[in-house]
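Quick one, T. Sequence first:
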Amino acid sequence: GLLELLQTRWRSSDLTFACELIEVLLTHFADERGGFFFTADDHERLIHKPKPFADEAVPSGNGIAAMTLVTLGHLLGEQRYLTAAEQTVRAALHAIERYPEGHATLLHALDELLTPPQMIVVRGAPADLTPWQRLSHAGYHPHRQAFAIPSDAVLPGLLAERAPRTTAVAYVCDGMTCRAPITTPADLAAALKL
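Structure tokens:
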């Protein structure tokens, strides 16, 4: 939810909170064989620690975790997150092969691992970001994620390399590989083939 919110309006505190949640997930819920348990390692001792992979009335927690890890991994350049996402999908492969229609969320995570999402990061003064944001979100592009970030935001990891300039600038990346910076909305529209 925080990653979707960040695409609508940027607050660095939301990114920090998302990273803190992921760190808790990796520290207290991860299974060394891949995937995540439903209960934390400091929970009372249980007869069985479930680690559900299948979607039910709601998407699989392991699938959502894997998708979130892929997005944050590419956005921040954090290989640990991408590795944890891959290990989660690998741990579920047998179940996915036997019953693919019951594992749509994990299949989505697998798709994002195999075809890294297109990331658009726009940096500029808050008043200048709106037209860029409209272009970034135009049309239906399930493999695209766009973030309009004010110039004064302090950013972690690889995201910090998407530096602001004197005027608004866009960085279009496939996973962690970025093209040259784009300095006009028209050039962004051309790059996105709008």
